[in-house]
Amino acid sequence: GILVFREFLRTEFSDENIEFWLICEDFRNSVGSKKLQTRAQKIFNEFVAAQAKREVNLDSSTRLQLEKDMDSVTKNTFDQSQKRIQALMEKDSYSRFLRSELYSATLELSREQEALRNQPNRLGLDLRALRFGPVSFRKTTESTEYSRDSAVPGLLPQVKTPRKIAGSSAQHETGSHSAPSSPKQQRAGLY
């Protein structure tokens, strides 16, 4: 969603708009008011002030009003400016984003992932619960299975299987090895 849109804006060298919008959102939802004035001034200097490093395209009346509001900062100080930038992105950047190759590719990937989740598989596993994204394998407390963010039971249990090593007795190794497929493999220790 927003990460893909942000990446698109970077390719157009206009990511300051989404960055400003996100910072305004964070500013409005911030808890403490102790450093509100300091934070507001930093945002103003970075995005609004004339010749700011990442200056956003605000009309002069909105900019002047914001300059006045900087004297008595509240959590809503940037609301009007944020709305203007949002309207600008919706009218300009977002419509181009919806026609972009990046959006098309992301949409196609999302559809493919959804189809995979809903597709029956030969192992009889229900893949609809799987979430795609970063994998965090943590050992669950109830078993020796490993799971994806603890939302889905682990699909690959850790199994201790005997493995013959030349010149020694059978030893146990932890791994996801399968059992030998033939007696010949079993005798040769090739599993």
From TrEMBL:
RGS domain ranges (all copies): 1-107
Gene3D superfamilies, per the entry: 1.10.196.10, Regulator of G-protein Signalling 4, domain 2
UniProt feature, compositional bias: Polar residues: 168-185
Signal sequence bounds: none
Region annotation (Disordered) ranges: 141-191
InterPro entries noted in UniProt: RGS (IPR016137), RGS_sf (IPR036305), RGS_subdom1/3 (IPR024066), RGS_subdomain_2 (IPR044926)
SMART domains: RGS
Stored PANTHER family: REGULATOR OF G PROTEIN SIGNALING, RGS DOMAIN-CONTAINING PROTEIN-RELATED
Name the UniProt record assigns to this protein: Regulator of G protein signaling domain protein
The organism of origin for this protein: Opisthorchis viverrini (Southeast Asian liver fluke)
